[in-house]
Specification:
73 residues, mainly beta, Ribosomal Protein L9, domain 1, 3-stranded antiparallel beta sheet, 7% helix, binds FE2/S2 (inorganic) cluster
Length: 73
């Protein structure tokens, strides 16, 4: 059974099986070689669809939702 968790002020955590395939927004298949993946929720990762930790640097606040998030430069 899938376990999907919205972390506080961070990514979406998915428990998967190694070998599962994730399809990105452009239709590319990504074969997973891990049992846990973190999907970007802030929209600012440079490694989408995966989280690269940028949310922490930019102070993403998940209580506001992505529409209220403005990238700090
Ligand atoms: S949620 Fe981590 S970089 Fe977007």
């Amino acid at each position: 059974m899938a376990n999907i968790k919205f972390t506080n002020n961070g990514p979406i955590s998915l428990n998967v099986s190694s070998g599962d395939v994730l399809e990105d927004s452009e239709g590319n298949n990504i074969t997973l070689d891990t049992e846990e993946v973190y999907l970007c929720r802030c929209g600012q990762s440079s490694n989408k669809p995966f989280c690269d930790g940028t949310h922490a640097v930019l102070g993403f606040d998940s209580s506001k939702g992505i529409q209220d998030f403005v990238k700090q430069e």
